[in-house]
Amino acid sequence: MKFRCLAPMTCILRRLAVLLLLTAAFAAHAQAGKDVLVVGQADREIPGWTIHTELPDGWTQDCCMYAKAIGVNMVLYKGEWSGEPDRVMVLNVWPSKLSSLEAELQDDRHHYLGRDPSGKYSVFALDNKAVACRGVFYEGTDHKDDVVVFCDPGLASGIRFSWSMTLAHDDAQKQDLLALFRRVAEQSRYMAQGAAKPNAGKMQH
């Protein structure tokens, strides 16, 4: 049944109150950049969700045109969209199936090394204060580097998400781009739709 408001002013005030709570919760995590978010609808036992992060200065967010065309939830890029994966930060969200973040990392490494047995990988360090996240950095024999960060908002969310980016191994701006990528991953926040504040604690793994 569709909700109808019998007291319009009361409804408006309530909606404003919710909006203020959401704004205050997000503002606590906003620093120098512009806040961007993507929303997912509830699906069976998985509640609706919002993933929120900080957009690097001068970058563009897309969730509904380019991202949709390549089957991901959001992309962040600088300059004109080229359709190439290099220097594009990609957000993927999926229903959690594996037991832990470590299992996600192992599965990802298995697939990567299956494609490139001589590729190398190392830990990509980051510190997300709100969501449990772990990162991996790949160096491929194709002279492409890939960085991936897996995050787990907790069992009740029913989801996991990742940020990833591909760079040329000899990209002159690689360190600066990795620093921006780390910032995006560290500032990522999960919110269940209808909740008043982002999740307060990390899930242990």
Describe the SSE topology:
Elements: H1 8-27, E1 34-40, E2 49-55, E3 59-62, H2 66-69, E4 74-78, E5 89-95, H3 101-115, E6 120-124, E7 132-139, E8 144-152, E9 159-168, H4 174-186, E10 189-192
What kind of assembly state do the chains in view correspond to? single chain
> Which fold name fills CATH's third level, the topology?
Protein Transport Mog1p, Chain A
Radius of gyration: 18 Å
Which CATH class is shown?
Alpha Beta
Helix proportion range: 25-40%
The rounded distance between the terminal residues' Cα atoms is 41 Å
Content-based structural category? alpha+beta
Supply the CATH superfamily name: Mog1/PsbP, alpha/beta/alpha sandwich
Which ranges are low-confidence, i.e. pLDDT below 50, for 5 or more consecutive residues? 1-32, 196-205
Measured by DSSP, the beta-strand proportion falls in 25-35%
Mean pLDDT: 83
Q: Describe the main β-sheet briefly.
A: 7 strands, antiparallel
Spatial ordering of strands, largest sheet:
3-4-5-9-8-7-6
Q: What sequence of helices (H) and strands (E) makes up the elements? A: HEEEHEEHEEEEHE
Structure summary, number of beta strands: 10
Shape annotation: globular
Assigned CATH architecture = 3-Layer(aba) Sandwich
Number of helices: 4
Number of domains: 1
